[in-house]
Amino acid sequence: MASSLLCAGAASFSLVTNRSPLRRLSPELRSPPLRLIDERTAPEKAPAGSGGSSFNQLLGIKGAARETDIWKIRLQLTKPVTWPPLVWGVVCGAAASGNFHWSVEDVAKSIVCMVMSGPFLTGYAQTLNDWYDRDIDAINEPYRPIPSGAISENEVVIQIWLLLFGGLGLGALLDIWAGHKFPIVFYLALGGSFVSYIYSAPPLKLKQNGWIGNFALGASYISLPWWAGQALFGTLNPDIIVLTLLYSIAGLGIAIVNDFKSIEGDDTLGMQSLPVVFGIDTAKWICVGAIDITQITIAGYLLGAGKPFYALALLGLILPQVFFQFQFFLEDPVKYDVKYQATAQPFFVLGLLVTALATSH
After folding, report:
1. What residues does 53 pair with on adjacent strands?
2. Which CATH class name applies to 237-360?
3. Domain ranges of the chain
4. CA dist 224 to 49, 165, 217, Å?
């Protein structure tokens, strides 16, 4: 379900030498992995973290202001900016079911499903990811709440468990509300939570491999919430499962966008993200290729299924994405990653809805 959950394969190879990764860090960061940064790199003195935006802090994105309010820090860890794709996935699933009605009850069900997918399970996944990424963040973003010591380890662990059990509880509630004999929404939530865990945590830590990790992330953001929304109002079928998993290849491409800002830390600690493995120039073309080719393939499928107007609508939404890829992302994926996502991704998510509506008829 939900993606919350953060959340194919290919052999990856290492660009890291046999020397210990910590030997390549600057002296002030050569501390033990679990140690919080000291006063020499404290957030209030770190250029990247000081003078940041309060708005960015509440959204949980880069450039956040230093905050002392524990509830604002907790919200930052859940990265609210990552919730909308999951919420939209639920909308697409409900639309694809062909059984959603604009009644008070159906709207209420969908809102609960969105809360489960976004604030709870995505919040769980993001907090968990920050917990296991604290060493990398100490290099890339040392002003973030966990490496900076703005929140204690016990408080982070408690938040992870509360968000997980809250999300699973809402999944069980939705099954009861929908009258399911088999608790499918609960199991989708449970499966998504498991994917989130193995994505971030050792020993599997799927994110260490750019292909597997990014596909898992793409599936968590597209397939799982779609399945949850469709299962809540209708029935999942093999065609939808295959179609959404195919769409998750585009999600893989979108996930790669986030890897460019972490190249230094990923390289230092041996994370095999695609920009580290292939270099920036090759990885940026893999990224846009995965996004564009997948959507063109889906448009071809819709055309072959006798739905030419939906196919043309999807193709029309691909064109502005390609424009912004050349305008921003392919020009400089490190500098313009946020601007590219802000301009291009709205057209991508609208394409998801077009596909959902096409499959509902």
Report:
1. 64
2. mainly alpha
3. 55-235, 237-360
4. 34, 18, 10
User: How far apart are the C-alpha atoms of 38 and 142, rounded to whole Å?
Assistant: 10
- Give me the long-range contacts of 20-25 (CB less than 8 A, separation at least 24): 21/268, 21/269, 21/270, 24/268, 25/139, 25/268
CA end-to-end distance (rounded Å), the chain: 23
Q: What is the pLDDT of residues 120-168, one digit of tens each?
A: 999 999 999 999 989 888 887 788 899 999 999 999 999 999 999 999 9
Task: Check: CB of residue 73 under 8 Å from CB of residue 145.
Answer: yes
209 strand-pairing partners? 272
Please give the C-alpha separations between residue 199 and each of 79, 203, 206, 212, 220, in angstroms, as whole numbers: 17, 10, 4, 9, 10
Identify which of 217, 272, 234, 190 has the alpha carbon closest to the alpha carbon of residue 1. Answer: 190
* Most distant pair of Cα atoms in the chain: their distance: 64
Strand partners, 194: none
CA distance 51 to 96: 45
Query: Long-range CB contacts (< 8 A, 24+ apart) of 239-246?
Result: 239/359, 240/96, 240/359, 243/298, 243/301, 243/355, 243/359, 245/219, 246/294, 246/297, 246/298
Integer Cα distance of 89 and 32 in angstroms? 40
Local structure of residue 181 (DSSP, 8 states): S
Q: Supply 75's token pair.
A: 């919200």
Say which DSSP state 51 is in.
T
pLDDT in tens, 213-262: 999 999 999 999 999 999 999 999 898 999 999 999 999 999 999 889 88
Give 61's contacts (C-beta < 8 A, 6+ positions apart). Answer: 79, 81, 338
Closest to 355 measured CA to CA, from 209, 269, 246 = 246
Question: Under CATH, what is the fold of the domain 55-235?
Answer: Tetracycline Repressor; domain 2 (1.10.357)
Give the global pTM: 0.80
